């Protein structure tokens, strides 16, 4: 009896959610005509010697390369870091990772701020726009490679939430595959059913794609997206220490609400400082892990920054 009630209850929720989604999709269709333009994005360059100056890379300015050449470090690799919904390059998801890298050693770091689009409260709009944002970001990357600042196999892009899909789209439009993309709890809503492979981060977007899931099935994408997908503490919310205020998917994606969703970049930041913090073993499922029989205990990776392409 109780079981039946529960099923009914779930069915009602599902119908409500589907109705909500349909209305949202209609709204997106109306707004999707809006183009994202290069001026809406901010690419800020920094390295160890220029941590604070944050040189603005404007590829439409003919003089940008001359200026950038004066400060670029040709010896080191490039990290590109971006944020999610209702967020910006000032968010901890971007700042903490950047600061952790530059505290450890030198890198060329470019933060991508797409808050002009990401700040749209109606989630499906920025979700759909991630594709165009990534396409423009790829123009910037292609330009840097063309001008010999770096090569594709020296580029690693890291994105949180919707930023993971921005990174995927960037990879799609790069002239060659970049070395690595890391998706930090890639946004789930919309990307599971409404948008296909070409819209979401997937393993074809870079030579190596690794993913950390921390709010899978709610704010985050549940399924496997990369070459190596990590599911700390089952990958689902609530993560230890988190009390989720709401299970409304749209609320949880927004940075103010998703403690588990934010945990992905906190773990990643820690893995830069402390590379052996998150020992992981290869399993086909969480069930296999819990049953402690089917996983390969000698197939070990350290989650986060130190992951080795397999
Ligand atoms: C980038 O450069 C172009 C061409 O000089 C200029 O029109 C535009 O305002 C610049 N954008 C920013 C954000 O400074
Ligand atoms: C970049 O390097 C290649 C190969 O060394 C060279 O042919 C090309 O002229 C360089 N391009 C620029 C813009 O310096
Ligand atoms: C377990 O992993 C190790 C290390 O990657 C590998 O050499 C071995 O073949 C794997 N064993 C099985 C049964 O897959």
Describe it.
Residues 1-23 form the signal peptide. The protein is 37% helix and 17% strand. A hairpin with an 8-residue loop joins strand 1 (42-46) and strand 2. The protein is globular. The protein is an alpha/beta fold and 310 residues long. Helix 3 (92-104) packs parallel to helix 8 (259-273) and helix 5 packs across helix 6. The protein has 2 domains: 1-33; 35-278, Rossmann fold (3-Layer(aba) Sandwich). Bound molecules: 2-acetamido-2-deoxy-beta-D-glucopyranose (3 copies). One 2-acetamido-2-deoxy-beta-D-glucopyranose binds at residues 296, 298-299.
Strand content: 15-25%
Total helix count?
9
CATH superfamily of the largest domain: Alpha/Beta hydrolase fold, catalytic domain
CATH class of the largest domain: Alpha Beta
Mean pLDDT across all amino acids: 86
Order of helices and strands: HEEHEHEHHEHEEEHHEHE
CATH architecture of the largest domain: 3-Layer(aba) Sandwich
Rg from C-alpha positions?
20 Å
Bound molecules: 2-acetamido-2-deoxy-beta-D-glucopyranose
């Amino acid at each position: 009896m109780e079981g039946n009630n529960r099923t009914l209850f779930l069915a009602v929720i599902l119908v409500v959610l589907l109705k909500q989604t349909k209305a949202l999709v209609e709204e997106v269709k109306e707004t999707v005509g809006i183009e994202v333009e290069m001026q809406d994005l901010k690419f800020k360059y920094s390295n160890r010697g220029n941590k604070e100056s944050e040189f603005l890379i404007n590829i439409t300015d003919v003089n940008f390369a001359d200026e950038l050449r004066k400060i670029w470090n040709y010896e080191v690799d490039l990290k590109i870091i971006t944020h999610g919904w209702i967020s910006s390059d000032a968010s901890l998801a971007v700042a903490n990772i950047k600061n952790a890298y530059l505290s450890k050693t030198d890198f060329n770091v470019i933060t991508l701020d797409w808050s002009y689009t990401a700040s749209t409260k109606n989630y499906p709009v920025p979700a759909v726009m991630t594709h165009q944002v990534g396409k423009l970001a790829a123009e910037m990357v292609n330009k840097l490679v063309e001008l010999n600042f770096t090569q594709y196999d020296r580029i690693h892009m890291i994105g949180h939430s919707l930023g993971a899909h921005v990174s995927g789209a960037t990879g799609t439009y790069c002239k060659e595959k970049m070395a690595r993309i890391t998706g930090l709890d890639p946004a789930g809503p919309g990307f599971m059913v409404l948008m296909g492979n070409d819209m979401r981060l997937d393993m074809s977007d870079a030579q190596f794609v690794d993913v950390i899931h921390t709010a899978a099935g709610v704010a985050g994408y549940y399924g496997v997206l990369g070459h190596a997908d990590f599911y700390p503490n089952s990958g689902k919310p609530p993560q230890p220490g988190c009390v989720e205020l709401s299970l409304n998917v749209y609320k949880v994606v927004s940075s103010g609400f998703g403690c588990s969703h934010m945990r992905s970049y906190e773990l990643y930041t820690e893995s830069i400082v402390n590379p052996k913090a998150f020992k992981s073993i290869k399993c086909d499922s969480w069930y296999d892990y819990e049953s402690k029989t089917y996983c390969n205990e000698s197939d070990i990776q350290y989650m986060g920054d130190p992951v080795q392409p397999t």
